[in-house]
Amino acid sequence: MATRTRRTERREEPLSRERIVEAAIELLDTVGERGLTFRALAERLTTGPGAIYWHVTGKDELLGAATDAVVAGTMPAGPADTTPQEAIRVLALGVFDAIETHPWIGNQLARSPGKSPMLRVFEHLGRQVQALGAPPAFQFTAASALLNYIVGVGGQNAADARAHQARTPDTGRTEFLDNAAAAWADLDPVEYAFTRGVAGQLREHDDRTEFLAGIDLILTGIAHRQPG
Amino acid sequence: MATRTRRTERREEPLSRERIVEAAIELLDTVGERGLTFRALAERLTTGPGAIYWHVTGKDELLGAATDAVVAGTMPAGPADTTPQEAIRVLALGVFDAIETHPWIGNQLARSPGKSPMLRVFEHLGRQVQALGAPPAFQFTAASALLNYIVGVGGQNAADARAHQARTPDTGRTEFLDNAAAAWADLDPVEYAFTRGVAGQLREHDDRTEFLAGIDLILTGIAHRQPG
DNA sequence: ACCTGAACACCGTTCAAGT
DNA sequence: ACCTGAACACCGTTCAAGT
Lengths: 228, 228
Hints:
The structure is a homodimer.
Chain A lengths: L1 H4 L11 H15 L6 H7 L4 H4 L6 H16 L9 H18 L2 H8 L4 H16 L4 H32 L5 H13 L7 H5 L1 H6 L2 H18 L4
Chain A binds a DNA duplex through helix 3 and helix 4.
């Protein structure tokens, strides 16, 4: 009786793709991309490195699955009850925020083939572009532009986070921006005239607001596109 | 006399940062990112791995320098003698084409910190945005949006090239697109309704044209932006 | 000042052997 | 069917020793 009802100990739950991906995400979040190692992962799952290969074909698939799991979580379940524009903003911000909490997604999104994670975002963007009333032949272009912009910002944010972490780990966000702005202001006056000029705006700017402004720019472009 | 004028043999030119970066680019172009190894690089330069570290701090810097060298080569030397819109298109296409010939740049751009290569593109984009007559407070946003879009497409193209290379090396471009379109058409009809619908356009689409259409979309957005 | 190359401390992945 | 963990074939990076 007793043996029949006892719970198996947490550490001895059978290995599964889900548990592996879950542990990989944890590792990525806590120790970064470099910390995700088959040996570290195996230790966390109290097993050997080889065992993981029974459930996952290799590191690339593991990274892809981890990214997909996180991105899937940010996608809305049902249809939006707002304007398409607002739905697109919410969608974009969802990805943006996911990258902020899991910076490693930023790289992974950019390098994942046209497969799962990107496709999810593309699909949801496309639906809203459709709801926007864009002509069919233009929907592909519009959804792609939005997706590429989002992925581009994501990659950049991830790179910034990495640089921030690697070079000035214990410095605050504002201090980090101050340093970057100071570096811009120090650039060659003729070769980097424009960049120097906007250095001040870099200091003041808010990543999130700036990201949304870019989204709105594209939305405006979609609304005013020249028929062709 | 003879000894004085003889050329030193190519293989025995002294090591230099430039030669190292040049060899790294060659390696990246021919054997890909995975082929760039300090051992392979050392062999090509007929020296030991350790020697490289005298001129370069590590692999990250080397990749950054290689990317910067290529990107710098695509930037225009003087002011453009066309409309700002056209100059932006040329600029964007320059980066696009550079990524097509050197796919590894795609990743590298996305992961290079706000440093050199990105800054070059940002500067040139900014100047044209300025020439476009965008209000100062908006120039930063506009240039950033263009840059992020370009980098996003670049990363995606690089990922595609990698996937194409890894999975179907000896298949043509059109066949590759056909396969992707077929995969899209096979997606779940309710979960991926939009993506299935545009699968046909994926087959017909031209990356370059599509890329430019996205640029034009953002340019339209810049032209029609709501004052605020 | 610059180069050499063995050595260190890791990796991802495989695979015979176990259960 | 699934797990184990030693072993293989690599990496990037360091560093004493050379010139």
